[in-house]
Amino acid sequence: MFRSKMLILLLILCFSDALFTDVGLHLSFIEELNPFIRSLYEWHVIAYYAVKLIFPVTLMILYPYIHQKMWVHPALTLTVIVYAGVNAYHCVWLTYGLTYLAGHV
Question: Measured between alpha carbons, how far apart are the two ends of the chain, in Å?
Answer without folding.
Answer: 46
